[in-house]
Amino acid sequence: MNLVWRARPTLQQVWAHLLQASGCLWWVKRQLRRRGAVMVLTFHRVLNDAEFQRTCSLPGIVVRRRTFENLAEYVAGKYEAVDFAQAIEAAAGKMRVMFTFDDGWKDNYTNALPVMRTRGIPATVFLCPGLVGRTLPFWPERWSYLQVCGYMWIIAGLVAHARKVEEADPPESAVADDVETPLPDDAVLA
After folding, report:
1. Residue 172's domain spans which residues?
2. What is the pTM assigned to this prediction?
């Protein structure tokens, strides 16, 4: 399994080259253009290098600002960037691309917006109204932080709590008369 994960980027590159060499990508682009289709690019976070190093966001939702700048420049030069209103109009011709951002992160405003303004690219941001004005991180970041940064502290806290419980004398009402099965020491760590 580990070998497959290490080989995955190479396999993806080989697959992309095969699709291009076979003409499949050209044919798909031609069909999309002919039908007036819109390619929607969905983003979550666009981070500068310093923010990228500190984030607890899941890797699949993060794009570095310089990568986003390169993509925006490419799209602005090769395609027609459209918003929702323009996307509804089915105009055949130049391939159309729409940028959307999920969850309305602050970095959409501080990092992505300046890049898009410079290149004249419209975008749509989908907000989470229940999170507006809150400083608590979005749940995926909290979970990721616990997995990456806080996992060892949680286990240490659980072990300490289990030992405290073992050492304390519970009140008589808390102990069942017929069953008293202590947890093994390694049960909390498993």
Report:
1. 150-187
2. 0.66
